[in-house]
Amino acid sequence: MKRLKVVVLALMAVFALGALASSTAFGADPEALPTANESYTGESGPGTLRTLGGKEIVCTSATASGSFSGRTGTLHGDLKGCKSEGGLVTCTGLGEASGVILTLGSGLLVYDSLSPLGVAILGTLTPVHFSCSIVLVEKSGKALCLITPIETATKHFSVTCEQAAAGDPKETVYWEGGVLKTISTAEGLLVSFNHATPEMGMLTGMGLGSTINNITVMG
């Protein structure tokens, strides 16, 4: 009986240590190591901006650049070959080459899921203005996109942004500092056409990014 009690106490200690390790990991936040400012470049294939109102803008490719340090980063992106109305109307950013839309913003590493552990980039876009013929479009807000791999030293990462339905982002829930948070409708990616009431939107696609040095996104 005494031996059984010792075994039970040992198991309880193991479970307690496991719970402590888990709560410590999830109470913190993911980060990119090394923490020194690290530059990156990226590119992607076709991407689509869809809104709840049924509007659609398709771009054939995109390039991106910026830097990351710890949990935070910057974004400078060019969406290219952008068209609306089923490819009949070219969409162009103000002061940009035909079919190119400049996108600026910032990124923050957060937990997308705790079991299994997943990391996402919470991107915040500064207001972007572009025109599709006589239609003036403005978009801004937040989007949550998954990043892989994590816990692996590498120079190459993939970032995936998905939709659940037209205009609805698939990922809206994340953990920061151990606190569960949700991107509200007012915070999400909002798109306005000719200054009308903004519609919820989502830009979908997958991009590949490369850093100069090997870094590890730590969970």
Produce a short descriptive summary.
The protein is built from 1 helix and 18 strands. By secondary structure, it is mainly beta.
Describe the overall structure.
- With 219 residues, this protein is mainly β.
- The protein has one helix at residues 2-27; strands at 31-33, 38-44, 47-51, 56-59, 61-69, 72-80, 83-84, 89-93, 101-114, 117-132, 135-148, 154-161, 163-165, 168-169, 173-176, 179-182, 190-193, 199-218.
- It has one domain (29-218).
- The chain is built from 1 helix and 18 strands.
- The longest helix has 26 residues, at 2-27.
- The relative contact order is 0.20.
Q: In terms of structural class, how would the helical and strand content be classed?
A: mainly beta
Number of strands: 18
Taken from the alpha-carbon principal axes, the silhouette is: globular
What does the average pLDDT come to?
86
Number of helices, counting only DSSP H or I runs of 4 residues or more: 1
Count of the separate structural domains: 1
Low-confidence stretches: 1-26
| Rg (CA only) | 21 Å
Question: Which characteristics define this entry?
Answer:
mainly beta, 14-stranded antiparallel β-sheet, two-stranded antiparallel ribbon, 61% strand, globular, disordered N terminus
Topology readout:
Elements: H1 2-27, E1 31-33, E2 38-44, E3 47-51, E4 56-59, E5 61-69, E6 72-80, E7 83-84, E8 89-93, E9 101-114, E10 117-132, E11 135-148, E12 154-161, E13 163-165, E14 168-169, E15 173-176, E16 179-182, E17 190-193, E18 199-218
Antiparallel strand pairs: 1-18, 2-5, 2-18, 3-4, 3-18, 4-7, 5-6, 6-9, 7-8, 8-10, 9-10, 10-11, 11-12, 11-17, 12-18, 13-14, 15-16, 17-18
